[in-house]
Structure formats: C-alpha cells, structure tokens
Amino acid sequence: MWYRSASFILDKQQEENDAEGKPESRLLSTASPSSSMADTLQNPNPQISAYYQTRAAHHGVVTTDWLAQAQAAVGRDPDDGVSEISIISTDSGKQLSVIDEFNNWRKQPDLAEAVAAIRALAWVIRSSEATTMMELEIELKKASDSLKSWDTTSISLTAGCDLFMRYVTRTSALEYEDFNSAKSRLLERAEKFGEISYKARKIIAMLSQDFIFDGCTILVHGFSRVVLEVLKTASQSRKLFRVLCTEGRPDRTGLRLSNELAKLDVPVKLLIDSAVAYSMDEVDMIFVGADGVVESGGIINMMGTYQIALVAKSMNKPVYVAAESYKFARLYPLDQKDMVPALRPIDFGVPIPSKVEVETSARDYTPPQYLTLLFTDLGVLTPSVVSDELIQLYL
Amino acid sequence: MGGNARCIAMLQAFKEVIKDYSTPPEKTLARDLTAKVNSYVSFLIQCRPLSISMGNAIRFLKAHIAKLPLTMRESEAKASLCSDIDRFIDEKIVLADKVIVRHAVTKIRDGDVLLTYGSSSVVEMILLHALEHEKKFRVVVVDSRPNLEGQTLVRRLMEKGLSCTYTHINAVSYIMHEVTKVFLGAASVLSNGTVYSRVGTACVAMVAHAFRVPVLICCEAYKFHERVQLDSICSNELGDPDAISKVPGRMDVSDSDYRANKENLQFLNLIYDATPSDYVSMIITDYGMIPTTSVPVIVREYGREHLLI
C-alpha cells in the first residue's frame, strides 16, 4: 500500500511553509476573503456546508496570477515562526495552532483540504513536547478531532485524518524503548504520507494517460482539480481530444472548468445539465472527481454525478473516477439519504415563494455498479478494491 | 436451533470432553485427543450434518490441539485448551455479536419498516438494541413452514413492546412495498459473496432486490468459508420429509393418500439455500460493514494471520 510508494524528497516549498506562524495568518486574512471565514473555529453559516463555502471562496478568482501572489506572500522569515510556536504551550493553545497551521496550508487554492490537514497533523508530531508515546498519541487524537469538527460535512477531511492516524500509528516502531527514535519514526511516516498525498494528483494524471486516446470525447462533471490535472497532462503530451463540460449549477463549475481548459487550448463545449443524455452518444468516456470514496466502492460527489453515471451505464459508456487514496472513507451509504447532509443554497435568479421547498443538497452517492474504474495513487482500481485496501489498513 | 447456538453447545460439550480426558499410557495427548475428537465429530455428523460454523470451530479446536507443545503437562494442556475454547466463544461469537449490533443500529432510522425472515439470534439482538436506543420503527417478520421459527421471534419482540407484523412467505411480495430495509441472518457466507442461510432467505432477498429495498446480512466473521457454491442443491442438508407432508390442523391434506403413491412422489425438505451476492447490499460483520466482494479478503487476511484459527 502506501509503504510501496516511493518516498519523495520534501519540496523547498514545504520547508518554507513549515515555519508559518500566527502573525502571518492575520496579515493574509486582511488580504484574502477566504481566510476571514477560516480564522474562526466554527462555521459561521451552518446552513451552508463549510466544505462548499471553502471551495467557492477558493475558486471565486481562479487565475494563476493570484496563486503566484499567494505563494510569494506565504514565504517568510523562519525564525519568527518558531519562536511564536514555542510560546504556545497550553493544550488549548496547541489545538488553536493546529487549526491555524491547517488554515495556513489551506490558503493555497491548489492544495486539497485533506492534504493541508495531513501536513498540519505532521506538524503536531514535530512540535509536540510529549515525553511518552501515549501522550503523543493522545495529542494527535485531539488535534485530529479538532480538525474534523472544524467541518463535519467534508468527507475527505475526515477520511484523510482517520487514514493518517491509522497509517502513522500502524508501525512496530511504537514498541521501541527509546521514545525519541519512535517519535522520529512516526514523524518520518507522517511526512511520507503527506508527501504521497501531495503528489497523488501527479501520479493519477500519469496513470490515466493510457485511457485517453487521440480523437476521444470526454464528458466532465464538476470542478475537480485532479481531473483538471489529468486533462492538463494529456494536452501537454499533445493528445487530441475534446471535452464536454456540464454547466454544474449552482456552483457554476462548468464555467470555471471551461475557462481553465480554454487556456490550455483544449476544445471545450458547455452543456446544460439536462443535455447530458442528449450528448451521451458522442461521448467516449466520463471523468469525474470524488468528494469521498466509500467502502462499497461507490463515490460521493457533486450533485448530478449519479444521474450522469446512470445515463452512461444505460448507454454503455465507461465512467472513470479520479480520486486520491486519502479520500477512502469508512462510510457505507445504503441510499441517497444515508449520508451526512451537505446543504448549499441555490440562487434561481428570481424570488421563490416561501411555500415552495427547494432541494439544497450539494452532493449525491453513486453506487459502485455504475463506475468502471477508479484512478488513484495506489493504481488503477476496480471499485471492489476500495474495501480491500480499507480492511488491510484497519485490520 | 440456530448456527451460533449449535456451535456454542458443541464447544461446551468438547470442553467437558477435554476436562474428563486423561491420556492413556504410551500415547501423546495431541494425537490421541485429536483422534477422540474426530470420533466424536463423526458421531455428531451421524445425528445431524454439521453446520459451517461448527465446522470452522472444529478446525480451530484441532489446530490448537496440534499446536500444544509436547513437553506440556496434561493438566496445563487441558486448562489451556479450555481457556482457548472460552476465548473463541467470547471473541468470535459473543463480542462479535455486540460489534455487529453496534454497526447495524447506525443504519436504522426513525420511521423505518424493517423486515426479517425466520429467527436469527443476531437480528433479534439488533432489533432489541435499536428499541433500547429509542428508535421509532416497526418490524415485519416473515415466516415459513414447516419450522415456523418466526413465531418465537415475534413472541420475544412483542414482550419487549415492539410493534410487529407477522406474515407467511407467500405474502412477501405483497408486503415488500412498504418495507424500507431487510435484515437477514446467515449460516455462512461463501467466498463469492453467496449467502448460505435458512431456506426461504433467497426468496426474500430476491423480492427485496426487485423492490430496490436494501438487504443487510448480519454474520459473524468466523462463519465465513472459502468454499464457492453456485446453487442451493450441490451441498445442502435434508430435513425430515414428514414435516412437509403433514400439515397440523389440516386433516384433509395430511391423510395417507400421498403416501400410497410413493414411487412417483418425493418430499424434499431442504434446510439451507444459497442467496446470490447480487441481491445483497452489504454484510455486517464484527470487522465492519463490507460489500460482498470483500468476503475473500477477510478469509485471506484472517487465514494468514491465524485469527480465524
């Protein structure tokens, strides 16, 4: 599993980001709208899923210039950061700084939430003052719980934290007599996990190249950064293909994605969500990302994915899911309502009378029988392998 | 008599055997005890064919007897075997049931109509536990001749105040449209995801699938088997044919007319049947909720780590 993947050298960027401290986050918070919400420990608007608020804020202005600005602003003097962290020694202070560390990582729109959480938890191990393994594990557990409670509707965040805990503590290093060597072993595994998760997108992009052939038509639903990476790599390898994007109401994901693809010179066609079945004849394959991959092998993704998968199955078109392995969650929905609800208000453009109810759920569950293959950093898998991997990890 | 009850009773009987056992001179405990256990097992098979859960338990016992070091004293060996048996019962049956109940109760929502077939010990525990957790649901118990096991289940559920509907398997397609979930027990789950369970289960699962009702199988992991079975006939148990031919209370049907035409008529009373994996939504085991494709994973992982043994 994870220990079979290569252990990569840490990026220079990660070393710069290691030394983040509180003052820097306050500086950035005046600059960008997303962090004003992120600095509070609670979701300010419980009606709207925090996960989707974040994505909306991140993708509000998606240009490469903004990303470059953010990255430039992020690097700073390492000394200040270290002294800042050592002042905070109380328990609640530690928790606060986990969330802050998490928020600092999250500011990069290209970084997945779960990867930010994993990096923050690795930081907890590194900066922990515990003297026994039990204490360290308890600290980790508390940090993980506070991260998970920050947004309970995000499946990848919960799954990422749980998998991190299992991966890191699943080592015989915990039986070492010497606490320091055990701790450094834990830290090594934590950083490896963080690195693997960070590189997951590139791995998935490489794996999926074999499936995109010249002259193919790909239908894409939702704005997944992994799928964008896949298409980017394909266009950079000079493959000729065209993309049909669904509009993706109410998030307007299709508009954002077509914007990105147009920059890559990939021929793009926008469809309204209802035109999927109409266009399915000319489609060769469907690519979607996933908010979470559940134990049955199905996926939880943006509303509309189930519909598209149903149409694809009836017309014999393959549905490919690109998802990193930290999104494997120990959930098992039996039907659409068996999940934690994630609500997102829909703006119809005209006022709706108060007597009329609106279905505001932001995501749906696609059962495994409608999915053909999952592209993950563990390889190209069939949906039934998800449970296999989870059982091996949780044994 | 359910699979768990038979298995526990058999293991308790073997505990008595071990306690009363004394090694004859010139013989090793391991070999002699294994031979004795084999002879007792053949006796049990003569009375009634073993269930798969009993078979797995016997494999476990024989493996532990074989693993006994030769230098161990007889009293120590006997005590160790007895404690192994106790641990098996505790971990693989009693605690496993508790874990299954905990997982299954998370799937029961207020307003659910749950259907169950026959009388499974685990499903009964799940329903009573959900009742204790103040969930609002009602139960439909489907029953069938000749054993009519559902009646004991209904009696026990009603004592605890659960609202039940009792119906015969003929009416299952009539009642299925109002059911939200189906909970079934199993005698065993085979490697290809086929559920081997009381005859009639396959019928209930098939109708549930046709009505798109999720089917949840509750089965402890020690009952998993690496065998693959494609239909219900190739390996099954035959019950008493007279149980089918005689219908209590219907003298006109039970009379000797059928018996006269013996050469053209055979009464087939099958005890088990095989439910294909397509009809099963998930299996709840003590190792979590798994899809049917993961059964060979558990058999493989636990066989490797000698946890099943």
TrEMBL record, chain A:
Pfam families: IF-2B (PF01008). GO terms for molecular function: translation initiation factor activity. Its main location: cytoplasm. It is found in: Cytoplasm, Cytosol. The keyword Secreted does not apply. Residues 26-36 have a biased composition (Low complexity). Component of the translation initiation factor 2B (eIF2B) complex which is a heterodecamer of two sets of five different subunits: alpha, beta, gamma, delta and epsilon. Subunits alpha, beta and delta comprise a regulatory subcomplex and subunits epsilon and gamma comprise a catalytic subcomplex. Within the complex, the hexameric regulatory complex resides at the center, with the two heterodimeric catalytic subcomplexes bound on opposite sides. This is Translation initiation factor eIF2B subunit alpha. It comes from Ilex paraguariensis.
Automatic annotation (TrEMBL), chain B:
It holds the Pfam family IF-2B. Belongs to the eIF-2B alpha/beta/delta subunits family. This is Translation initiation factor eIF2B subunit delta. It comes from Ilex paraguariensis (yerba mate).
